[in-house]
Amino acid sequence: MRQITILIADDEAEIADLVELHLQKEGYHIIKAADGKEAIQAIQSKSIDLAILDIMMPGLDGYEVTRQIRERHLMPIIFLSAKTSDLDKITGLVMGADDYMTKPFNPMELVARVNSQLRRSIEFSQPTPTTTNITVLEAGGLAIYPEQHKVTLYGEKVELTPKEFDILYFLAKHPKQVFNIESIFQQVWGEAYYESGNNTVMVHIRTLRKKLGEDQNKNKFIKTIWGVGYTFNG
């Protein structure tokens, strides 16, 4: 079995070394990059399973690295940054990151989040005997193809990040059923709910709605039940 490879891109060598130390204890192979350009080169030349990116890097910042990764890859991306404002976190998630941790950080929490992201990524990529029998979910011009990880709206492909797809698919599988933010986080992220999970879910749903054209389209696919949670209005 191929060893899982993780990219750590951070211009602070001490941080990169600390993360490397803890992840190597988990048995992961580590590749380090000191700036954004090195990170892109590693992505292009190596088989990377997950990327941990700083935002404030010389050359290309973490946002641009994420944008370029998302043009070709669905690997999990975790931001590890000293930028702590809600706007920074929202920007990171909108750009396509799956998770966001702020510095200073607990190395063991980072390891737990890495394990969680990889577990879900690997589970999704494994073919199963029933994969080809999964029914396409359709509602009001929206079509969700689980086996292809693809979404179309009136025949046009909608580009979603992995987590945006997971949220949409989870809600669409249970139409009219209301889920609170904690339940959505636990189902989609596959880990125990933590404090910042609230903003994480809401940001992903906000960007998901925008990509589905709900600002202009009267057909609201994801409905907010105030004080309770969200439901798929299929």
From TrEMBL:
The keyword Transcription regulation applies. GO terms for biological process: regulation of DNA-templated transcription. The keyword Ligase does not apply. Residues 134-234 form the OmpR/PhoB-type domain. Residues 134-234 bind DNA. GO terms for cellular component: cytosol; protein-DNA complex. SMART domains: REC (SM00448), Trans_reg_C (SM00862). Keywords: DNA-binding, Phosphoprotein, Transcription, Transcription regulation, Two-component regulatory system. GO terms for molecular function: phosphorelay response regulator activity; transcription cis-regulatory region binding. Pfam families: Response_reg, Trans_reg_C. The modification 4-aspartylphosphate is found at D54. PROSITE patterns: OMPR_PHOB (PS51755), RESPONSE_REGULATORY (PS50110). It is found in: Cytoplasm. It comes from the Bacteria. Residues 5-118 form the Response regulatory domain. This is Response regulator transcription factor. It comes from Paenibacillus anaericanus. The lineage of its organism: Bacteria, Bacillati, Bacillota, Bacilli, Bacillales.
